[in-house]
């Protein structure tokens, strides 16, 4: 194995398949020569630059790092590996040699070497490695969040795939055009050897996102579907595409070709509709809409292959298509890849297999199947979760079932999920390499954390963390509108029954484990871990209080003791919602110290249990059960808006006297709730005035507009700091909102304030 193998392996993520090291060479900073004996292409040139950036390139350097053609026996070995185009070989003969079948393999070898080298006292410590290595999974990558801006980091972990949406339009000649708005994404993808897949999003979104402009009125009339009367009358109806229309086919094909022509784009994907409305035109009427869409895409992809034979072609299944996925797969040929996504089946954290039986026949006949798993606590929230057991479990299933492409979903930014991103890279590359503890140690070593202490903390933390994530308490409550919406209060109409059905058994056991994890993190001064475990412990306590409160509420004839138990659960929810709020924001500040990766979902997550507390209090008041009044965290309604308040430009100015609710300087939430209506509302600006002078500042959400609330995201709380110029002057809250002009459509909402 080599006496230094274990030491060097601790610095490598992912772990190579075969590695040994018997010696470490100390080399002066100015004594390394880089030789490339290999035809140089763009990726190889980039690999060389990485070496030169690290080592320099002394003309007369005595120690050489060489990129060389593989010898015949090496070629034979590499060709027998899975995914040989990414395989590589490193060996030493007084120098370090890197060889591979392709420049992709060379880049992988360079990355391994760079991870293994350390610097000390003007010297390089260069391990004399022997490595044979290749990935288990062909395509490993990400989409969403800030994945487009994080290519250098993810590529350093050998993640080699990225999904990126273009911006779509139609030129004056009626030709569809696609533009990738961030040239750096293309440049970095080429430089790092990342397979860039550009996609056309859900087809029914195309009109709303890209063609909702007066200049496209004529084309829209030719391509949009013909809805049923019932669909057209719905508030949430959005026109989709008629896939039988020749104009639609031409437009989609134009966009496909436009994407394929972009230098650096290796794959073109089209997402099936999310909610395909049946088209009632003569050609479509009576046919299954998802099958019609698929038939159109197969036809167009056939034409695309003729024109661009080197472009990969992919179709994304959706949650809307789920019931007919098996029929869809029957009509897709093997040379078109298929990706599986479903909001409630792939964006989950449970212990059930993700790749269901209906997908397997396509894989077994040689089709390439991909999947989009959530690799975080939840897609809608931002909550800490260091999850070696969960990530390994997922990766093992994907490799065992011969999945071709795995695209992890980490929102809103990788910075909050570094461990899970690294773990995904580890076990998609080398599924059977390390166990969970070994990976924990490697991650701790790479990130300068005490390995023994990190393993102790992580082992205590990961079980209660997974229990909480699998239960989906936080995520499910974000959609439990009768509970969290100020406009939908109804004791008889909310989903507590769902949660009591999925109540966490032995919840006190997991709370104790999380409490021990807090202490373990504190012992090694690992603040990120300490705040993570505090979040988990307080969220579990909130879940326990929720379970007990609504179990008691369901009792038909409660006695006074049971009423008091409800009050105690309300108090527990109040106290722990505050604890979770503080811990989550502390965690956020530790992770994102310069506040460059903030996203409103952090606020939503921090506030969710406060909204549950509001609901509990409302129930106690309605039932006339006495309870303690709290000033901190309490919500107070200020007023409403409706369509009559908007001027001809669609702008309304709302003002409220908040003096009685803001008696002290400090942090407040200004709260907004959507009321069912035709249009949503955009929150343009928020300020607090005292004698016409602004005395407030918005925290985090320093963008304009701040947020749009509608039926899909119906509530919002924004942080605001108030610092009075005078204690005697009234404080006036001014909110600028945007909605329909001149009351053209209904548009309603609610404004409130909360002291935190």
Task: For the structure shown, list the relevant keywords.
seven-stranded mixed sheet, eight-stranded parallel barrel, 4 domains, 756 residues, alpha/beta, TIM Barrel, 21% strand, Chitobiase, domain 2, 27 strands, 38% helix
Layout of helices and strands, plus pairs?
Elements: H1 5-9, E1 18-28, E2 32-37, H2 42-55, E3 63-68, H3 72-79, E4 88-92, E5 96-100, H4 103-116, E6 118-120, E7 123-133, E8 139-143, H5 151-156, E9 161-165, E10 167-170, E11 176-179, H6 183-192, E12 195-200, H7 205-210, H8 217-223, H9 229-233, H10 246-260, E13 265-271, H11 289-307, E14 312-316, H12 325-330, E15 337-340, H13 360-364, E16 369-371, H14 388-400, E17 405-409, H15 418-429, H16 436-446, H17 451-471, H18 473-477, H19 481-484, H20 496-501, H21 507-523, H22 527-553, H23 560-591, H24 600-622, E18 635-641, E19 651-657, E20 666-675, E21 681-690, E22 693-694, E23 696-698, E24 707-709, E25 715-722, E26 732-738, E27 748-755
Parallel strand pairs: 2-3, 3-5, 8-9, 8-17, 9-12, 12-13, 13-14, 14-15, 15-16, 16-17
Antiparallel strand pairs: 1-7, 4-5, 4-7, 6-7, 10-11, 18-27, 19-26, 20-25, 20-27, 21-22, 21-24, 21-26, 23-25
Helix pairs in contact: 2-4, 10-11, 14-15, 16-17, 17-21, 17-22, 21-22, 22-23, 23-24
